[in-house]
Amino acid sequence: MEIKTVGVIGAGTMGSAIAELFAFNGFNVVMKDQNMDLARSGYSGIEKILNDMKRINDEKPEKEIARIENYGIKLSDDQKNAIRKKIGVQVDVNAMLKRISLTDKYSDLSSCDLVIEAAFENQDVKNRIFSDISDLSEHAIIASNTSSLSITEMSSRLKRPENALILHFFNPPYLLPLVEVVPSLYTSDEAKNTAVSLISRMKNHREGMVPVMAKEREGFIVNRLLIPLINSASDLLDSGVASAEDIDTAMKKGAGFPMGPLELADMIGIDVVVDVMEVLERAYGERYKTSVILRRMREANRLGRKTRIGFYKY
Ligand SMILES: NC(=O)c1ccc[n+]([C@@H]2O[C@H](COP(=O)([O-])OP(=O)(O)OC[C@H]3O[C@@H](n4cnc5c(N)ncnc54)[C@H](O)[C@@H]3O)[C@@H](O)[C@H]2O)c1
């Protein structure tokens, strides 16, 4: 099935970035929020992403030219232009923005071939949204970007539950290429294959998008492995085994991590880490027990970068 128009429900952090990703890949996008002010605020977020990416892309060939000339090699104008042509990526901000329209009505999603729900992480909110879009066009694929909620429960609200599945994008999708594709008990092979092949053909501002399949089990792959690692690092700190700096240095220099687990926790947000850990604890029991220090940090509003204090000060 050919997907031309993509609807996105929720214009927050993820919804706006997902809308940007599809516009960047040439799709028409209809982005819906609860009211037009929220939709417009998401649109401003998209403008910012696009302008930042354009600036970074414009700088890339000039940086490469400077890097080569640093070795004492003098490049001709032709050689410089060849580098600009080879590694320069044109980001036409206006053309991409023109592909995105805004709405606060579900009826404007009727022409969409794929709708991605990225509203609040709350089962009742998502169930209600699925009821509200239960009779979208027959062929439309309905996806949720949920990190932890039941797609099987959401899908039971649809006329065609076989068309629904989870597409779990990572923050920020314009730089992180992974999408966990998670079918429900109802999902048809056709919907699954359409989603996997669509994601495989897309790219973000850094590289090609990469789908992986996972079963509908709490945490899927990444959160089930990554969040408990942050939890264990927090326990190490809490029991005085090592300082935050040394824990992060150890994992970067000893295990090749691009970021230490505690720096990463500050970036994700301690509240989000605790929410996911509690989901895992409920699903899998004692061995996923949420670290006490993480709970205390959430109570103290030490949420990481967003409150300018977490494991580190910002
Ligand atoms: N933030 C992340 O790092 C991240 C990563 C992966 C997945 N997710 C998932 O993505 C989803 C969205 O998360 P977020 O961080 O973007 O949240 P957010 O709070 O930034 O945005 C949610 C948006 O949904 C809107 N919304 C709520 N009900 C709506 C409705 N009925 N119709 C239209 N819009 C509605 C809200 O007004 C808000 O703008 C959640 O399910 C979350 O678990 C988040």
TrEMBL record:
<dbReference type="Pfam" id="PF00725">
    <property type="entry name" value="3HCDH"/>
</dbReference>
<comment type="similarity">
    <text>Belongs to the 3-hydroxyacyl-CoA dehydrogenase family.</text>
</comment>
<feature type="domain" description="3-hydroxyacyl-CoA dehydrogenase NAD binding">
    <location>
        <begin position="76"/>
        <end position="204"/>
    </location>
</feature>
<keyword id="KW-0520">NAD</keyword>
<feature type="binding site">
    <location>
        <position position="121"/>
    </location>
    <ligand>
        <name>NAD(+)</name>
    </ligand>
</feature>
<feature type="domain" description="3-hydroxyacyl-CoA dehydrogenase NAD binding">
    <location>
        <begin position="5"/>
        <end position="69"/>
    </location>
</feature>
<dbReference type="InterPro" id="IPR006176">
    <property type="entry name" value="3-OHacyl-CoA_DH_NAD-bd"/>
</dbReference>
<feature type="binding site">
    <location>
        <position position="147"/>
    </location>
    <ligand>
        <name>NAD(+)</name>
    </ligand>
</feature>
<feature type="binding site">
    <location>
        <position position="306"/>
    </location>
    <ligand>
        <name>NAD(+)</name>
    </ligand>
</feature>
<feature type="binding site">
    <location>
        <begin position="10"/>
        <end position="15"/>
    </location>
    <ligand>
        <name>NAD(+)</name>
    </ligand>
</feature>
<feature type="binding site">
    <location>
        <position position="33"/>
    </location>
    <ligand>
        <name>NAD(+)</name>
    </ligand>
</feature>
<dbReference type="Pfam" id="PF02737">
    <property type="entry name" value="3HCDH_N"/>
</dbReference>
<feature type="site" description="Important for catalytic activity">
    <location>
        <position position="168"/>
    </location>
</feature>
<dbReference type="InterPro" id="IPR006108">
    <property type="entry name" value="3HC_DH_C"/>
</dbReference>
<keyword id="KW-0560">Oxidoreductase</keyword>
<feature type="binding site">
    <location>
        <position position="126"/>
    </location>
    <ligand>
        <name>NAD(+)</name>
    </ligand>
</feature>
<dbReference type="GO" id="GO:0006631">
    <property type="term" value="P:fatty acid metabolic process"/>
</dbReference>
<dbReference type="GO" id="GO:0016616">
    <property type="term" value="F:oxidoreductase activity, acting on the CH-OH group of donors, NAD or NADP as acceptor"/>
</dbReference>
<dbReference type="InterPro" id="IPR013328">
    <property type="entry name" value="6PGD_dom2"/>
</dbReference>
<feature type="binding site">
    <location>
        <position position="171"/>
    </location>
    <ligand>
        <name>NAD(+)</name>
    </ligand>
</feature>
<dbReference type="InterPro" id="IPR022694">
    <property type="entry name" value="3-OHacyl-CoA_DH"/>
</dbReference>
<dbReference type="InterPro" id="IPR006180">
    <property type="entry name" value="3-OHacyl-CoA_DH_CS"/>
</dbReference>
<dbReference type="InterPro" id="IPR036291">
    <property type="entry name" value="NAD(P)-bd_dom_sf"/>
</dbReference>
<dbReference type="InterPro" id="IPR008927">
    <property type="entry name" value="6-PGluconate_DH-like_C_sf"/>
</dbReference>
<feature type="domain" description="3-hydroxyacyl-CoA dehydrogenase C-terminal">
    <location>
        <begin position="219"/>
        <end position="314"/>
    </location>
</feature>
<dbReference type="GO" id="GO:0070403">
    <property type="term" value="F:NAD+ binding"/>
</dbReference>
<protein>
    <submittedName>
        <fullName>Beta-hydroxybutyryl-CoA dehydrogenase related protein</fullName>
    </submittedName>
</protein>
